[in-house]
Design goal:
Layout lengths: L7 H4 L4 E3 L3 E3 L14 E3 L45 E6 L4 E6 L4 E7 L4 E6 L6 E5 L4 E6 L4 E2 L3 E2 L5 E4 L6 E5 L4 E5 L6 E6 L5 E6 L5 E6 L4 E6 L4 E7 L6 E6 L5 E6 L4 E6 L5 E6 L4 E6 L5 E6 L4 E6 L4 E7 L6 E6 L5 E6 L4 E6 L5 E6 L8 E3 L15
Antiparallel strand pairs: 1-2, 3-19, 4-5, 4-32, 5-6, 7-8, 8-9, 9-10, 9-11, 12-13, 13-14, 14-15, 16-17, 17-18, 18-19, 20-21, 21-22, 22-23, 24-25, 25-26, 26-27, 28-29, 29-30, 30-31
Length: 395
């Protein structure tokens, strides 16, 4: 994410805030003491009428199953994507472009211009389209994953990030500067309803195992918001503290805990997925930012953008079991795991590169030069039946 205009109050601070995910040139905070318990509050219910989807209960897709990522194993590609060419899409926020990389040769095979501040490349719920989120340009650029070529832009206000409801009825636009969640038609992107949020800088999220609740992070106010997207309404606001800057959110494979990266606390929060109580804080590394699940659902990869490393967290042990370091340092940001699970692709936000890690030993096997400010990189296709959005959250 590149430098984005914020409110007048934020502009008075001597920091350059990168839209929705980071702060460039921010002075590192001193080591943080044990985190104080988060404050949980309830927000007034929305006055919006329930959507038609709210009347239809969501079938708990993983009831009786031990792993919400069971459909994401190597080789489990949907028939929809089996003919798609394997490519890596890199939105360069500061260049206003996308670089397309062949993961076999590590060469850029296509380069095209999008709009102002492209933040993430997001697979659609039905897996048929990739959407480039042009945050400042106020539109989405569709990309045909069969060819890797862009299509006609679609006007959308403030598309910092994009998710999809688990039943596929809504596209959920994280309107970061507007502090709201916009529910849109997942195909035409027509605005259907908006939900104002009691926090600032909404950017990432994930769903409970039954798909009914969306836990979203708000970077600029240090909050998490618990959202019933079917109503839509805010159920709770969880304040993590003035020193917090929550980023990526990922549900554990057993569906019991949300992991939330905190870039200013330098680690991840564990939040109970049933009660929404904060269980504890797990230090990982400076600038903890992106969260990615291994193909066997045993490990969580945490990109530590402030120190050029990736922490490997064991889901079973709930602790860091390994740290992969980029030789000479770097700024690993957002990305995804290859379809076979052997590579972790991450954008190098402040270095204009993409890092390719071997997940078997943690080595950086390639560093690829791309445009300026690479951000929400997308590896595609990946295993899974449908997409929940971001750079590739599949079920």
């Amino acid at each position: 994410m590149t430098v984005a205009l914020m409110t007048v109050a934020l502009m008075t601070v001597a920091l350059v805030i990168v839209g929705g995910c980071a702060v460039i040139g921010r002075t590192a905070e001193p080591p943080v003491p044990r985190a104080a318990p988060a404050r949980i509050t309830s927000a007034p219910p929305s006055s919006a009428r329930p959507s038609p989807a709210a009347a239809a209960p969501i079938e708990p897709e993983h009831r009786g199953r031990a792993d919400v990522y069971a459909a994401d194993r190597p080789g489990m590609l949907s028939p929809v994507v089996k003919g798609f060419r394997s490519l890596v899409y890199v939105p360069n926020s500061e260049s206003g472009t996308v670089d397309v990389i062949d993961p076999e040769t590590y060469r850029i095979v296509r380069h095209f211009r999008t709009g102002a501040l492209p933040q993430h490349v997001v697979p659609s719920w039905d897996l048929k389209t990739l959407w480039v989120n042009n945050n400042r340009g106020n539109f989405l650029t569709p990309v045909d994953p069969r060819t890797g070529r862009p299509g006609r832009p679609v006007p959308v206000e403030d598309p910092y990030n994009l998710y999809f409801s688990p039943d596929g009825t809504y596209a959920l636009v994280m309107a970061e500067r507007n502090n709201q969640l916009d529910l849109r038609d997942p195909h035409s992107m027509k605005l259907l309803r908006s939900l104002p949020l009691p926090c600032r800088g909404v950017n990432h999220g994930d769903f409970t195992v039954d798909g009914t609740v969306f836990l979203a992070s708000c970077e600029f106010s240090g909050d998490l918001v618990v959202i019933d997207w079917r109503t839509p309404s805010v159920i709770r606001r969880i304040h993590l503290g003035h020193m917090s800057m929550p980023q990526d959110v990922k549900l554990s494979p057993d569906g019991t805990v949300f992991y939330v990266a905190d870039m200013e606390r330098h680690g991840v929060w564990l939040v109970d997925a049933a009660t929404y109580e904060v269980e504890r804080f797990l230090p990982t590394g400076r600038g903890a930012h992106g969260l990615y699940v291994s193909r066997d659902s045993r490990r969580l990869y945490v990109s530590n953008r402030g120190e050029g490393s990736v922490s490997v967290v064991s889901f079973a042990k709930r602790k860091v079991v390994d740290v992969w370091r980029i030789p000479g340092g770097g700024s690993p940001d957002m990305g995804g795991v290859s379809a076979d699970g052997t590579k972790l692709w991450l954008s190098g936000r402040y270095h204009g590169v993409v890092y390719v890690f071997d997940t078997r030993d943690g080595r950086v096997v390639r560093t690829i030069r791309v445009g300026a400010g690479p951000h929400g990189l997308c590896v595609y296709p990946q295993p899974g039946r449908y997409s929940l959005g971001h750079t590739g959250v599949f079920r």
